[in-house]
Amino acid sequence: MDAAHQEQPADAERQRVRQAPNRAQVWSRSQRPRSQAMVGPRFEQTIMEWQPRPWAAIELIHKQPVRWTAERMASCDGGGGPLGHPRVFINLDRPQIVPCGYCGLPFANEHHRAHLQSLPRTSYPLEPTGDEAEVAETQRTTDEPLGQR
């Protein structure tokens, strides 16, 4: 651990092109293509192995399991406190999965569970799958005023 950290250019280039490997195309008009994305002084002399996980958030949110509730209305505050977002109320009357408009966490009414399970495919998993991207069970949304997600 005490040795000097030096990155090899070939290793760095291989890591650079792996940024967000689950998303090959751009998903925003303001986003630059991957070939042009990580250039300039901000990205010089970076050791790519130390960078955060390279997955695109737009794909990771769809690995979050549905939050089931027996109520017709769900509320989401993104975890509450200074790390969350403004509390929003989500109408769950329709038999569909409804994501939070801020953080994308999926909610559904327990009454519609049988219908959603009968569908050939849903955009969110209906039950926890054990994926490392899932929010831990201890961090789920609570009814507590400043409860954690």
Write a concise synopsis of the structure shown.
The chain has helices spanning 9-16, 34-37, 57-60, 113-118; strands at 67-69, 73-76, 88-91, 98-99, 106-109. With 149 residues, the chain is mostly loops.
Task: Describe the protein's architecture and organization.
By secondary structure, the chain is mostly loops. The protein is built from four helices and five strands. The protein has helices at residues 9-16, 34-37, 57-60, 113-118; strands spanning 67-69, 73-76, 88-91, 98-99, 106-109. The strands form two sheets. The protein has a three-stranded mixed beta sheet, with no helix packed on it. The radius of gyration is 20 Å and the shape is elongated.
C-alpha end-to-end distance: 36 Å
Strand content: 5-15%
Counting helices, strands and paired strands, the structural category is little secondary structure
SSE pattern, N- to C-terminal: HHHEEEEEH
Name the descriptors.
single chain, 149 residues, little secondary structure, 3-stranded mixed β-sheet, two-stranded antiparallel ribbon, 4 helices, 5 strands
Give the arrangement of secondary structure elements.
Blueprint: H1 9-16, H2 34-37, H3 57-60, E1 67-69, E2 73-76, E3 88-91, E4 98-99, E5 106-109, H4 113-118
